[in-house]
Fold these 2 entries.
Entry 1:
Amino acid sequence: MGRGSGFGKVILFGEHFVVHGIPGIVSAIDSSTDAEVKKSPTMVIRDERKTAKGYSEEKRLQQIESIERMLKAMDLDPKMPFDIWIGGTLPGFSGLGASAASSVAIARAISEELNLNLSNEKINSVAYEGEKAYAGNPSGIDNTAATYGGVMWFKKNPAGGQDLVEKIHIKRPVEIVIGSTGKVANTKAMVEGVADRKKANPAKYGPLFKQAESLAVAGRKAVEAGDLKKVGDLMNENHRILQEIGVSSKELDLLVDMARKQGAFGAKLTGGGGGGCMVALTPGKELQGKVVSAFKTAGYEFIATKIGVVTY
Ligand code: MEV
C-alpha cells in the first residue's frame, strides 16, 4: 500500500489575482489530507474526510477527472484502477485547499504504491494537473502550499514557464481562526467569473489588480517585519477588493465582521470565495479564543490554528 499527505492552506493575500500573474502570500496550516492507495481490479474511492454538507457530491466528478489527469501526468494509463482511501485532519470545506491537498496526498500515495520515487517538484506538477479539474485555470498556489508547506510568496508565470516561489520567513507562528460559512463553492465557476468580469470591464478591474499587487508587496514586508497590526490592516483592505471583484458573500462578510468586532487584527475571505471560508488574524491565545467563542455562539464551524508552523 502507498501512503501520502498534503497540507491545507490559507491565503493571506492575493487569491484570484494570482491566477492572472499578481503575486500572493499563502501559508500551510497544520491540518492535512492523507491518502492510502492500493492497486485494485476496479476503481474504488473511499472519501472519509469530514466535509461541509454536499461537498463530496459537488466535487465527485471533478475528483475522478482530477485522478485521471494526475495518472496521465505520471505517464500512466488514466483509467488505471486503484482502491483509494482519503482522510486526515483537514476538513473538506471550500477555501482551504482541500482539493489540492487531496491531489498531493493521492499523487504521493500512487508514487509510493508503484515505486515511482517522484520528487516533490514532480508531485507538485502532477497535483497542478489534478487541480485543473477543480479550478479550471488554477494558479498553482494551492498545490504548491500543499506540497511544500511553510509561508510562501507565489507568482504565477502567465506564459506557462517556471512560477516564482519563495519561502517567507516569519518571526514566530501566529494564531489564526478560520471560519466556515458551511457553503460549498465551485472554485472553477468563481475563477471563470472573475476572468469574464475583468475582460468585460478593464477600466474597473485594471486598478483593482494594481491594488492587489501593492497589497501583496506591502503584506510581505509586514509579515517579514513581524508587524502584525499592519498585516491585519492589509488583510482587511484585501477583503475589500475581493468584495469589489464579486467573490465575497453575505455569510463571508458576516464572519469577517464578527471576527473584527472581537478584535481580530484583520480578516478576509480565503480561497475562491462565494461561500467556503474566511481567515482572521488573531495573535495570542486570548484573542483567538474570543473569535472562536463568537463563531461557536453563532453556530459556525471553525478551525483555530497558526500560520508558519508546518513544512514538508
Ligand atoms: C483558490 O484557493 C485560489 C484561487 O486564486 C484559485 C487559484 O489560484 O488557483 C481562487
Entry 2:
Amino acid sequence: MKPRILVVNDDGIYGEGLRPLAKALSSVGEVTVVVPEKEQSAASHAITLHKPIRLRRLGERFFIINGTPADCARFGALYLLKKPPDIVVSGVNQGANMGADTLYSGTVGAAKEACFLGFPAVAVSLVQPAEKHFDSAARVAREVTRLVLKNGLPPNVCLNVNVPDRPWTSLRGTVLTSLGKRLYGRQHVPRLDPRGRAYYWMAGHTPKGIPTPGSDLAAVRAGKVSITPLRLDITDGDALVALRDWRWEKVK
Ligand code: MN
C-alpha cells in the first residue's frame, strides 16, 4: 500500500517550490495537492470560519481553494482525501522559516494544523532562494518524509525543515536544531501613493538572524539542513513553576 501524502503550501498555486516537492514525493507515495489559490505567506495558523470555501479541481489529485494554508491542511486531510493522509508536507516555501518566522509562517501554520489534527506533519522551506535550488529542498523533503513514515513523530510535534539554497552536492549534512532568534525591523516606513494618500510599509528590512550555536540559523549558515521539532503546546514549564510565588490570591 502506497503511503498517502498530502502536500500543502502558503505560496499558492504559483509557488515555485510546489511542483518540485510534489514530484519528489511522488516516488514515496500517492500525492494529493491542496493549495491556496493566492499567496498566503505570513497567514500563520489562521483558518476560515466566516466565509464559504470554494474548491477548484485542477487534476485528479490537485486542488486549489480560496482559503488559508491551515484550511488546505484541514480541508485536504479531513474532507478531500478519501482516507486520512499518512503524512502532510507543507512547502517548499520560498524563503526561510527560522526562529520567530515560525510564528508568522503560513507554511508552518499548515503543518501545525495537520499536527493538531493528529497527522504527522513536516514544513519545508528554502532559505533565501536566490539560485532557487528548490530541487535540493524537495529532495531533502523526500528523505525526511521517508524517515517520518518509518519512525513516526511524537504526538503534538511537527518538524520544521530549512534547507540552504545550494545544489544537492553542496549541502553539508543535517542537524537537529532549536529555534534561533530572528530580528524583525521595528520601523513603519510612511510613503505617499500616486494619489497623495499615505500608506505605510511595516517592519522595514527583511529579518536578520543571530546564529547562536545549535540554532536553525547557525545550521543553515554552515550550509546544513536544519530540522527543528516544534510542539503545539507553548505552555512555559519553567514560568509555571517560577510564577507560583506570586500572590495570585490577590487576583481573586
Ligand atoms: Mn510563503
